[in-house]
Specification:
With about 190 residues, the protein is α+β, with helices and mostly antiparallel strands. About 45% of the residues lie in helices and about 20% in strands. It is built from 8 helices and 8 strands; from the N terminus they run ααββββββαββααααα. The strands form 2 sheets. A 4-stranded antiparallel beta sheet has the order 1-8-3-6.
Length: about 190
């Protein structure tokens, strides 16, 4: 819980009574590897904060191939925020890549926090902006770099993930086949 409070306090000032109120609305959710936090075709149920584990945002292309868009690890928020807020069906999946432990907030509780704490919308707006900037920073180089450089950038940005998540997901994220990925890894060693 301390990591969660420390995280949100980076984006605004809250007193103890306010942070206690926020944490009183949080529930703990544990997901096993490969379970979904949010599924395409269903309305997202929660906003989550990852305490332990890694999730990935993914979708299936028109060939039925599983495409990883990005990863989110510990001490970060995870949600399909736009669809969660609007309460409309998601078009992508959020899947646990490892066993995960999260703090989660239902739509009702999330709205109650927003209606109770003055300035909460500003804090969540800054958090969302920060998450989007991180995503853009991580994805932009993937368009212009060669596969080896993309992999080296991945290792630099996510030093602890390479040994925690399936290589097939990393290859998908990098936009290369598993065979090419194996060759790149072999050449780097």
């Amino acid at each position: 819980m301390k990591e969660f409070i420390d995280y949100i306090l980076q984006f605004g000032n809250l007193n103890k009574q306010q942070t206690d109120f926020i944490t009183s609305k949080a529930k703990t959710l544990e997901l096993h590897k490969d379970e979904y936090f949010s599924e395409a075709g269903k309305i997202p149920r929660y906003v989550g904060f990852i305490i332990e584990g890694v999730v990935r945002f993914c979708y299936y292309n028109n060939k039925g191939e599983d495409i990883t868009q990005y990863f989110v690890d510990e001490n970060n928020f995870v949600s399909d925020q736009q669809r969660f807020e609007a309460q409309v069906v998601a078009s992508e999946y959020i899947q646990a890549v490892t066993d995960c432990k999260m703090l989660v907030f239902s739509k009702k509780d999330w709205d109650e926090i927003g209606n109770t704490i003055l300035g909460w919308d500003n804090i969540t707006g800054l958090i969302l902006k920060n998450c989007l900037l991180k995503t853009i920073e991580r994805r932009s180089p993937l368009v212009s770099e060669d596969a080896t450089t993309r992999y080296l950038s991945f290792i630099e940005q996510f030093p602890g993930l390479v040994n925690r998540i399936p290589l097939s997901h990393i290859a998908s994220y990098l936009g290369i086949t598993q065979q090419s990925f194996s060759r790149i890894r072999k050449n780097i060693r």
